[in-house]
Design a protein that fits this description.
Number of strands: 3
Helix content: 55-70%
Radius of gyration: 29 Å
Structural class: mainly alpha
Number of helices: 15
Length: about 325
């Protein structure tokens, strides 16, 4: 009897082991690479502008270093190498970027460039790392590389904390472009704070990007056209091509889309119109096609005007007077 029970226990244990093991006919699931995070159309467009900005910035740094080396050393590569060996940031970047020196020397210079004290070298390395990051993404069908992103962010933070506007702008844009569209709003807010630091130093690319973030309501619950116009106008004054085109759109008539609309809604001063006829029609009927207004140009402005609409939502007990706002220049 005891032997029969022992055999039953052994058979049950054997069946349990067989059940726990995967069937040989079913191959194990492969280790699929992580899928890229879903991003908004605005982020993808911002990423293209960021890559273009990085290429221009790195070319500008390289050109400036060549001019500096020509004036300081007059083609004396040995003297430039000696300055790099002493830790001169511009000499290090120039020697490394131009491909001078042996492999061991370039490795030594790369280690010296990563030192926190070499702020300008950290800036060049950080910008190059971000550009390399996007090159890797394009070559690997969008698969992100966390190590490359973290290294780039680490290098950029050194000059960004020291007040370099270029590093601050790229840091904020890199944070914004790499976020998924379902990410926390605080992440977008942190990105906007870095971009704003660069915008306050009159970096026109940062001003334009911050204006676009306000226009799309990226990090806030509402679309603030006043801040949109403020930052984009400052960028357009400096000659930013996209900002100039955007300002033309922001100045167009909300209803008919005519350029350089001279009148604005007397309530919110955001929606612009070419005459009072367009203003009254858009206020009562909507159906606009122009830009420069929150809530969508197609909706009736009486329902989306920030001044009247906000006031109505806070005080539902007292009905608002349905009066057509006068327009002003």
């Amino acid at each position: 009897m005891g032997g029969k029970k022992a055999r039953e226990r052994f058979n049950r244990a054997k069946r349990g082991v067989a059940t726990a093991q995967p069937s040989p006919a079913v191959p194990p699931a492969p280790n699929d690479p992580p899928k890229p995070q879903a991003r908004t159309e605005q982020q993808q467009e911002a990423e293209k502008r960021l890559v273009g900005y990085l290429e221009i910035a790195l070319d500008g740094i390289a050109h400036g270093n060549r001019v500096w080396a020509a004036n300081e050393f007059a083609g004396n590569v040995a003297g430039l190498a000696a300055a790099a060996g002493r830790g001169d940031a511009r000499a290090l970047v120039t020697m490394f970027n131009e491909g001078h020196g042996t492999i061991n020397e370039r490795g030594k210079w790369a280690r010296m460039m990563r030192a926190p004290g070499n702020v300008e070298a950290n800036l060049w390395l950080g910008l190059s790392a971000v550009l390399h990051y996007y090159t890797i993404i394009n070559k690997n069908d969008g698969v992100e590389h966390e190590a490359t992103r973290d290294e780039a962010m680490k290098l950029l933070r050194v000059p960004a904390d020291r007040g370099f506007a270029t590093a601050q702008h790229v840091t904020g844009m890199f944070m914004y472009c790499s976020q998924s569209d379902s990410g926390p709003q605080v992440a977008y807010l942190n990105a906007a704070r870095w971009i704003r630091k660069a915008a306050m130093q009159e970096l026109m690319d940062a001003q334009y990007e911050l204006g676009e973030m306000f226009r799309h309501g990226v990090f806030c619950d509402h679309i603030y056209m006043r801040f949109t116009r403020n930052y984009i106008r400052r960028a357009s004054v400096q000659g930013h091509v996209e900002a100039i085109a955007r300002m033309q759109d922001l100045r167009s008539c909300v209803l008919c889309g005519a350029d350089d609309a001279l009148l604005a809604c007397a309530q919110c001063h955001q929606a612009r119109y070419c005459n009072s006829v367009c203003s009254e029609k858009h206020w009562c009927e909507g159906g606009g096609v122009g830009g420069g207004v929150g809530g969508g140009a197609g909706a009736r402005h009486k329902d989306t005007c920030p001044r009247t609409h906000t006031r109505r939502s806070h005080d539902d007990a007292e009905p608002q007077r349905d009066a057509r706002p006068s327009t002003r220049a």
